Amino acid sequence: MRLTHTDRRRLALLVVLVAAVTVFTATVPLLRDWFDLRVYHGTVDSWIHHGGRIYDYRVPGTTYGFTYPPFAAVVMMPMALVDLHTAIAVALLLDVAALAFVLYVLADGVWRRHGWYGCALAVCALALFEPLRDTFSFGQVNILLLALVLLDCRLLTTGRHRWAGVGIGLAAAIKLTPAAFIGLLLVARRGRTAAVATAVATAATALAAWTAPGASRFYWTHAMWDTTRVGRLDYVSNQSLQGVLARLGLMDRGLWAALVLVALGVWAARTRRAVAAGDWTAAFALTGLTASLISPITWVHHLVWLLPSLAVLVRAGRPWVAGALYAVLCTSVVWLWFDDASGVDGFVGSNIYVWITLGLLLRLPVAQSCSARSTPLPRSTSEVAPAPIPAAPAIAQASAQPAPATPPAPPRAAAFEAGSGTGPGLGLARKASSDPTGSTRPAAANPQSSSSPASS
Q1: What is the pLDDT of residues 297-322, one digit of tens each?
Q2: Pick from 127, 132, 100: nearest CA to 19
Q3: CB of 274 closer than 8 Å to CB of 280
Q4: What Cα–Cα distance (Å) separates residue 317 from each residue in 10, 119, 322, 431?
Q5: Alpha-carbon distance 155 to 161, whole Å?
Q6: Span 257-270, average pLDDT
Q7: What is the distance between the terminal CA atoms of the chain, rounded to a whole angstrom?
Q8: pTM of the model
Q9: Contact predicate 282/312, CB 8 Å
Q10: What is the distance between the alpha carbons of residues 335 and 259, in angstroms, rounded to a whole number?
Q11: Residue 63 CA from chain centroid, whole number
Q12: What does the buried/exposed string (b/e) look like for 211-246 if buried means 16 or more CB atoms within 10 Å of the residue's CB?
């Protein structure tokens, strides 16, 4: 097949972009050497083959170990059957598949209008997105959890509610953050779906308790409440409200709780509006933003939860805003304040991803479907048609001459006269427009420095 001149130019530009992205990702970002995946693989291998305990394992030479709920370890048990390199390859394939599904849900068919060239440009752009490239580089599970949650978003959007809630329940059992989406279902008054999600999460947790009772007891009574196992709150990668306060030296739990309550109030009000309009994508996007803000620790790679918000901005006709925010999230700018986040510049710069998340929570366009629902379709024409007018009695002609033939009325006029409701003004319906995966008690003053392989 012979390429057109335009296709040749596009292909040449694409080759240049791929080369630039490759050079950038190989030199500029902090490459993580699949550190978190090595934590997962080492934990499961120690547990299954050597009789070790899940939360006692540490990557050799570090203080990092497993921090997820026990069900996550149960899900990762197949890793014990393969070596580390095979586990890395399988994890990459799963992440790519999950990302493809996420894009399928968020693009909602838009990709068909842009063809191969638009899709290739999107892939290049995504390769630069810091939370996403860190998720791949660490071997993290974030994109897999986002895919599970967006599966339920897809089911709710398309009206297939029977299995909705299963994805959220599984994601919440693997990691605690997605449990926020059960709150979304409650705010949206989707009691059945919330019950399904809760039941799935509970059943998965019970399965883990049966499989590893000692580990489950330790996690739910001790490890879950010990934030020092996850990492330092003031570490620059912690882009949550708690992280902002910690970098300011304000460790007052009451102040943090007050900020969390304010964030939840804003989220509830805006989410109700989105759900009332049937805008589930915006509702899920707002919940991802809020979960990132209120979590005690939100590492940079957790911010893949911002992808739905950027998609909502593009859908709402604000691609330049989405592009500008996306560009900032590609820069790794917060790391400029790795050593010192003091002063005004430190307050602004080291928390810039938090400011983006807050801005989206406050200003993300919602209720995009309101106009489509403002004038509902009538159930039948009888609901809008006026009562028929009784025919006037025939009047006999005084003359014997036959009356001249009257041409039939045009169909539209006849319909209007008969009160069919198709005339103007008669109710026409409008067309619907990584964690630092581990016990991260620092072994040094900067446990996750630029030369450290540990999760950011």
Answers
A1: 999 999 999 999 999 999 898 989 99
A2: 127
A3: yes
A4: 25, 19, 10, 19
A5: 6
A6: 96
A7: 46
A8: 0.77
A9: yes
A10: 25
A11: 31
A12: ebeebbebbeeebeeeeebbbbbbbbbbbbbbbbbb
